[in-house]
Amino acid sequence: MQFDNVSILPPATGLAAACEPILRSVPKWFGIEESIIEYVEAIEQMPTVLAMHQDQAIGFMTIEQHFPGSAELHVLAIRPEWHRKGVGRALLDASESHARRMGARFLQVKTISARQECAAYAETRKWYEAVGFVPLTEFPTLWGEDGPCLQMIKVLE
Length: 157
Fold this sequence. Notes:
With 157 residues, the protein is of the alpha+beta class. It has 4 helices and 8 strands. It has an 8-stranded mixed beta sheet with strand order 1-2-3-4-5-6-8-7, with helices on both faces.
């Protein structure tokens, strides 16, 4: 897929080196070094859809399939200068297509819930809802006392 000189590459593994700088470019969402390292290790192993502008990786979504009928957006990030330009939707379209090909009927994502006031995550939840995700359940201590988790789900049609 290509638009405005942005290419969406098909899912691949081994993309940690391309994705780590993107994670580090958005410290409002990814500011804990331990978590970044864990995400980078996961990205290396899991199918990841990558957005490229010229020779620079500008965004990605990593997909984890827990069960045959469901998948999760394990981690995703887009460089801040590319927010609100359609890159996220294009990555999501490609990720959903991949999940469907793998047999998934549901796609989930986990994010910080509204129990923790944070403008960045309020934006995140708003975007997820705009692209069809709905809140499913909250896990108040999944990520520790200061990290209430909201699980959101989308039916893949």
